Amino acid sequence: MKFITDRRRFLAGAAAGVGALALPAYVRRASAQDADLSPYEAANIDWKQATGQEITVAVIPAAYFDNLAAITPQFEALTGITVRYEKIPPAQIRQKCVLDFTSGTGTYATHAADPMYYNLYHSNGWVEALDPFIEDTAKTDVEWLALDDIVPAWREANSVDGALLGLPYDGEVTLQVMRKDLYEAKGLKPAATLDEFVSNAAALHDPDNRVWGAALRGVAGAGQNVYIYSSLFRAFGGEWFDNGELVVNGPEAEAALTWYVDTMKAYAPAAAQNWNWPDIADAFSQGTIATYVDAHSSASVINNPEKSTVVGKIAYERWPEGPSGKRVSSIWNWGMPINAALSDEAKTATWLFIQWAASAETQARTSYRFDGPAKRSGVNRLSLWRDPEYVKTVSAFGDNFVEATLASLENDTDVDWRPRAPQWPAIGDTLATAIQSALAGQATVKDALDNAQTRIAPMMR
Amino acid sequence: MKTKHLRAIGLLIVTGIFILAWVFPIFWSVLNSLKNEQDVLAYPPKLFFEPTLAAYRSVLFGPQSILPNLWSSFVISAGTTILTMAIAIPAAYALARLRVPGSRWAGFYVLATQMLPPVGIIIPYFLILRNIGWMDTYQGIILIYLSFSLPFAIWLMVSYFEDIPFEMEEAAAVDGASRLTTLRRIILPQVQGGIAVTIVFVFLNAWNEFLFAVVLSGNTVRPVTIAMFNFVSVEQTLWTQLAAVSVIAMLPVVILGILAQKHIVKGLTVGAVKGGGRR
Q1: pTM, full prediction
Q2: Residue A366: in which H helix or E strand, if any?
Q3: Is residue B102 part of a domain?
């Protein structure tokens, strides 16, 4: 009997709890906003040529893909093609797509692809070259698509042997992010060189008052510590390939890794060697980091008033110059390839989708014209970065944001930022482990790099 | 008298420390799920703050609602548990009681399947499901889960069956009961505790599984463990929502555990006090 009364009380409580949660009612955002299709119909192609096709698109959990999914009903109305999205975390999306490719069943018509994977995709014939689609006047209105407007370095990063394999949808550059107020209080200027970056960090470093001089991603991973290290390596004048041989333990490598290790050790919180970019952004938004270098897209996180205590105190600058005189930003972009295992009809449908997603109109509709809280800052078009309306939206992120981003996109984006080879996934992991062991002090810089070289050499044969 | 008190206090402290170590992460998740994003990151960490249900509201009724994922998890876990038990009970009974040639080896084989590292078999499983068209389906995932829950359940149940004295079955046989009747009327009530324990473990494993689910599931069948991972987005970690999903995902298992607790305690001590009927 007691059990029953308990259970009744429990159920009543649970029901009340659920009721409380439902209040106030969540109002779902209207999904088809701004549903005027005429800007698309201006393209001189038949959008309906693949009507009835169904494609599945694998994306990562990110606001910029959520925005795309939100306006996809417009694409479906335009083309009669049905699009299903599957959201997969970044670490697993690579794995799942490679599995899909190897089994050749074409589950994912296209996916958010890591630019470093195109060599692997290409050498296995897993994806189509996009050029035949672009050159086919029935499928592409070249003038309307305005390919040249899409960040050139990203397109080059997504090409192998001159063939474009993935059209960039969203991307980023690596920027210096600073606490304007702290810099002003000490009379400091944004660092122009890596040396100045260190001296700024030293001047601002005050851990007793919970302000650390600088932070960089430290956690092991091909897209984590290698992301920072690759920029440093290139800024120190490093070249990945020496007569076709991949060399990761040369003098520039040693100098770059030494700089990375020393800076982290002296001015970053001890935990930062296990931090990824969201952790740095979280710490910065709590006011505990004076400066960091990372993706410009973290601007939306550190400017989120619900989370950040430093809104209005943020400024940006390009990557500091290295000893070689180069500023090196990442080439990171999420591009979309066409799965070679699809039928011709489905390939056409997929191309139409990719073309639609990368078009200037869709880029605008998912960014400054998006009717929701998240405004994209990773648009793929240089013209948008010069569009006053777009600039107005993103310049709210802080001082010099637009200028620094555009300058980086045009000047600092380095196609050979990381070694482009089909063996990349394994090379990246090996480098990540080596960097981690140096950051953690388990190995000297030289030993760590020599060890990586020993392990990488056989992969390249 | 005094030393007895001291001992009790000492025990209490030690127990307290252990409980704290286990309870703290859960306590912290619950706390974080009720905070706003700023309070989660506050330093020093806040114990007192204005609680909000915003995170729960958003994960249950927001655009990324996890309700369909909870349903997926439930169907997978319940399906796996029911099928596992339906096969494991007779199989374990047979292994424990019947003198079939090779039953010892069968027992070892069942255990050996547990020794394979799961990562090693994930690609074969993927290819098999792909070829029979069972990717991203309930039957596909349940089938794969059976492959590791069954050996585990059989292995666990065998030890419970072995603990029941043979005399009980002999007495039943003397009274003219068939083997099946004996199993149903005499043996099963004796191993209730064991069955409860096994059910809880099988359900728990299926509910918490991530590695296979992430590869073998898709949009149609997507358990909560996978959906939860999407709150670690590329741009940021949505701490409050992640905590809220964890708390919600924990509830069914916690409730199951509480309901089965009486049996679990009994089940765990079976064999510890009795001599056992092993021959």
Answers
A1: 0.85
A2: helix A360-366
A3: yes
Assigned token pair, B185:
């009327």
Query: What is the number of alpha carbons within 13 Å of residue B191 lying toward its C-beta?
Result: 29
Domain extent, residue B179, equals: 55-269
Listed range (A314-328, A331-345, B108-122) with the worst mean pLDDT: B108-122
Instruction: Please state, in angstroms and rounded to a whole number, the distance separating the CA atoms of residues A78 and A241.
Output: 46
Q: Read off the pLDDT of residues B27-72 as tens digits, 9 standing for 90 and up.
A: 999 999 999 988 898 888 888 899 999 999 999 998 889 999 999 9
Chain A residues touching chain B at CB-CB below 8 Å: 20-22, 25-26, 28-29, 56, 60-63, 66, 84-90, 92, 95-96, 99, 103, 105, 107, 210, 278-279, 281-282, 285-286, 288, 297-298, 300-301, 304, 306-309
Cis ω on the peptide bond leading into residue A422 (within 30° of 0)? no
CA dist A461 and A124 (Å) reads 17
The enclosing domain of B232 has a CATH number of 1.10.3720.10
Per-residue model confidence (pLDDT) at position A234: 97
In contact, A222 and A194? CB cutoff 8 Å: no
Number of domains in chain B: 1
Which of A146-155, A363-372, B180-189, B190-199 is the most confident on average? A146-155
Return residue ranges of chain A for CATH 3.40.190.10: 38-171+332-385, 174-328+397-459
**B126 inside domain:** yes
Please name every residue paired with A334 in a beta bridge, in sequence order, or none if there are none: A170
Q: Over the stretch B65-96, which tens digit does the pLDDT of each residue have? A: 999 999 999 999 999 999 999 999 999 998 88
The nearest alpha carbon in chain A to B52 belongs to A21
Residue B247: name the closest of B10, B27, B4 by CA: B27
Question: Tens of pLDDT along A88-134?
Answer: 988 889 989 999 999 888 999 999 999 999 999 999 999 999 999 99
CATH of A38-171+332-385, one of 3.40.190.10, 1.10.510.10, 3.40.50.1110, 1.10.3470.10: 3.40.190.10
Q: Is B23 contained in some domain?
A: no
> Which token pair is A174?
């690596």
Contact (CB, 8 A) for A109 and A339:
yes
Yes or no, beta carbons of A20 and B53 under 8 Å apart: yes
Asked if the C-beta of B44 comes within 8 angstroms of chain A's C-beta atoms, the answer is no
Query: CA of B108, closest CA in chain A: separation in Å?
Result: 33
Rounded (10°) angle between helices B67-97 and B239-269: 20
Out of B218, B219, B234, name the one closest to residue A90 (CB). Answer: B234
Least confident interval from A81-90, B74-83, B156-165, B244-253: B156-165
In a domain, B153, yes or no: yes
Ordered strands of the A110-111 beta sheet: A82-87, A54-59, A110-111
Which of A22, A298, A304 is closest, CB to CB, to B61?
A: A22
> If 0-12 CB within 10 Å is exposed, 13-18 middle and 19+ buried, where does residue B150 land?
buried
Residues from chain B that touch A280, judged by Cβ atoms under 8 A, are none
Residue B53 contacts A, CB cutoff 8 Å: yes
Fold of A174-328+397-459: D-Maltodextrin-Binding Protein; domain 2 (3.40.190)
CA distance, residue B272 to nearest chain A CA (Å) = 29
